[in-house]
Every structure is written in structure tokens, then in C-alpha cells.
Amino acid sequence: MKPSAYRKWSTQDRGQAEALLEYEASLCPGCGMPRHAAWDPRSMGGWVADAHPCEACEIRDQKAKEDGNEKPHVFVTVRPAQDAATPAS
């Protein structure tokens, strides 16, 4: 974001945006849990992992593989199937 756009925000909006950035920085980038708890060795055994398959990601990965687009600079995006009649931008 350009600083000029940021300065147009109200003081309250800027404060909330800064608080959100600070909060997000306090989370583990891998699991999203608070770092102070997740990175504490004393919390070992205090976590449970749940798998949540994402059908959209599966379709994206299949399409990339079919097209041979498994390259770091090629991005395959996902959109709802009902939008399929409209060409992707």
C-alpha cells in the first residue's frame, strides 16, 4: 500500500490496521497459532492436528499437473464452478 493511501485513513482505522499487523506477526507462520504458546517446548503434546481436505486445492493441483504447469512462476487459480462460463481474467 502506498503511504499516501494509508495517511487518508482515519486514526482509528490506522490503529486497527497496525494492531492487526502486530497480531499477525505474533502468530506462527506455519500453523497460525500464537508463537508464545506454539513455540514453547513445554507445550509439547498439547496440540492436536486435524486434516481438512480442500477440494478446490485438489482441482488446482490436478490442473497444474495436467498442463505441465508445475513451475514456481506459474500460478493456477481456483474459482467457483458456476463462474466457469465466464473466462478467467
Structure characteristics:
mainly alpha; 89 residues; 4 helices; 2 domains; 40% helix
Could you give the topology of this structure?
Blueprint: H1 3-7, H2 11-25, H3 35-38, H4 55-66
Q: Which outline best applies?
A: flat
Estimated radius of gyration: 20 Å
Span between termini: 23 Å
Low-confidence stretches: none
Largest sheet: none
If helices are DSSP runs of H or I spanning 4 or more residues, what is the number of helices? 4
Helix content: 40-55%
User: How would you classify the helix and strand content by structural class?
Assistant: mainly alpha
Quote the beta fraction: under 5%
Q: Could you say how many structural domains there are in total?
A: 2
Report on the structure:
This protein has two domains: 3-43, no CATH class; 51-83, no CATH class. With 89 residues, it is an all-alpha fold. It has helices at 3-7, 11-25, 35-38, 55-66. The protein is built from four helices and no strands. The two termini are 23 Å apart.
Concise account of the structure shown:
This protein has 89 residues and is mostly helical.
